[in-house]
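ENTRY TYPE: protein
WANTED: fold as C-alpha cells:
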Amino acid sequence: MPSPAPNFELPTAEARVLDALMTPVWIADLHQLCFLWGNAAAISFWEARDQADLLARDFNAMPDSLHMRLRAVHHRLTAGESVDEIWSMHLPTRQCLARVRHSPYVMPDGSILALVDLQEIGETSFNDEEIRALDSYRFSSQLTMMMSVDGLVLEANPAAVDALPPLRLPGARWQDLFDAHVDAQAMLDRTLQDRANRVDVVLLDGDVEHFYQADLHPGVDPVGNNVVIVANLSDLSERRQLEQRLRESEQSVRQAMELAPVPLLIISAIGGNPLYVNAAGLKLFDTTSRQLQRDARELRQLNAVMLREILLTLQSGHSFGPKEFHLHTSAERQLTVLVTSESLSFDAEPAVILSLVDVDELRRAEDRLNAALDRERDVNRMQRQLVSVVSHELRTPLAVIDSGLQRLQRHHQNWAPVEIFDRLAQLRSKVERLSELAGKLLDAARLDEGKIPYMPVGYRFRELLDKVIGQQRELASTNPLDVKVGELPAEVHGDPQLIEQILTNLIGNAVKYSPHGTPVQIEAAATAQKLMFSVRDFGLGIPLEEQNQIFQRFFRASTTLSIRGTGLGLHITRQLVELHGGHIELSSTPGQGTLFVVHLPL
C-alpha cells in the first residue's frame, strides 16, 4: 500500500502555471514516499489514468536500494540543496534515461517536499556500460565515497549518505566521521604513500559506534583531474557480533560440560594430571573438586594401563575409542565403562578429554532407546508421507504458475485484457490451492501442539449448517446436496468456527470423491444429550483394510490417489470433534460410497 500522503493542496495559480508546462513536473514527499501532485505531462509520463491514479502509486513496492537513494536526495533537500542527476526510469511499458532535478519545496510548517522536473534524454554521451556503472554505484549497498587528499568529501553514494549522517552536511570531511582523538588524516596520508590502505575503523553516529573495514586507494578526479582517495566501507558489525558470540560460546561450552549428564574428564597430555572433571565425573569418582588433586595420583596408578593406551593412540594421530575398560575409582570399587577420547587444548595446555559411559547404565538405557527408535520410525514414516504429499501437491501448481507467468511475460502485449484476466484468474486459483495446503499443515501442527483456540459459546447449528451447504452448492453445483434436518435446539454449545470447519471438510470430501451428478446426503438431529449429523456419498468408497488408518495424518485411501488431496482433512476433523468431547464414526464400501457420523455432546 502507498504511504499515507499528508494534506496538501497546491495553490491554484501555481498549479495553473505548472500544469501548462510541456515537461513533466510533480511534487513528492520523499519522507513518506508518495506523490502529492503532478501536472498533465507528469501524469502522461508515469502512464497514469489521472491525478488520483498518480497519487495512488505505491513507492513501497520499489526496491530497498531505490528507497535508500530517495532518502539520500531528501537529506540534501532538507539541507537546502537542489539535486540534478541522470536517472534510469523504468515505466510500465518502457524504459528511458532522463535528467531529473529535485528542488526543495518548503511548506508553511517548515517541512520540505520535493519539486521534481524531468527532461527525457534522447541521444546521450553515456554508453550502456557507463549507465550501468553509474546505477551500480548509486544503488550499491556498500558505502563508497570520493574525497580530496585533505579529506573533503567530493561525492558519496546514497548508501554512504544514508548510513553516515555527517555526510549529509555541506562541506563534509572524512575527519568528521571519527572521534577527535583518531588521526583520520594519517589514514589518507598512508594511502597515498602505500598506494592502498585497508584498516578497521570505528565511525560515530551520535553516541553510537559502527564498525567498518575501510579499503582506501588513490585515484584521479574525472572532473578536476586531481588526485583523490576512494574509500569503500564494509560493515563489520556482524563480524564483531560473531566474535562476541564466539566468546560467549566458549563460556557456554564450559557450562554445557559442567551440566552434561555424561562424566567428562580432561587430563594433561603431559603427566596425566586431571585438569577438569565435570559434576557427573566427580560423582562417578566419588570425590569433590577439592579432593581431586589428592586423589589424582591414586587415579593414575589404578588406571595406568588405560591412560597409557589412550595417550599412545592419540599421539599417533588417531581418535581413541569407544573401548570398554574396567575403571578403578578406589581400592574397593570398580566399574565397567566405555571410554572415548580426543586431543584438545585446555587453558592453552595440550590435554586429552575422556568421555566415560557407564556400561551398566548404557544397557539400562538400551530399552529406553528401543522405545525411542520405535517413535523415531513413526516420525520418519510421517516425514516421508509429508514429503510425498507436499511434493505432489506443490509440484503441479508451481509448474502451472511458472509456465503461466512465463507465457504472460512473453505474450501479454499481444493478448486482449479479457484473456490476461482469465489467465491471471487461473494462476490465482493455483495460489489458493497452495494456500489451502499451507493452512491444513498449520492447523495440523497447531492441533498437535494444543495451540488451536477452543472458544465454546452458544450458537445456532441450523444456521451454520445452511451456510456451509450454501457455500458447497456454489463450489460444486453438479452434485445435488440432499438435506434432512430433524428436531434441533435453538442453540447448542461449542466453537462455531471449528464446527464450521468440520462440516466443510466432511461435505467437501463427499463432493470431491463422488462422480458428477451423484447426490450427497446430509442429515442432522438432536436428542436430549447429544447432537448428531452425518454425511453420506455414493462415490469411490474406502477399502476395508484401510479404514482403520483413514484418520491418520497424511494417509489417503488407495481409491483416491488419482484425486488431489493432502491426507490432512479427516485427521484435522477427528481432532476437532474430539476437542468438543465427541466422536466420529465411519462406514464405507468400495465403489458404493462412504458414511461419516459425528456425535457431539450438547
Observations:
- The first strand starts at residue 25 and ends at 29.
- The chain has a mean pLDDT of 81.
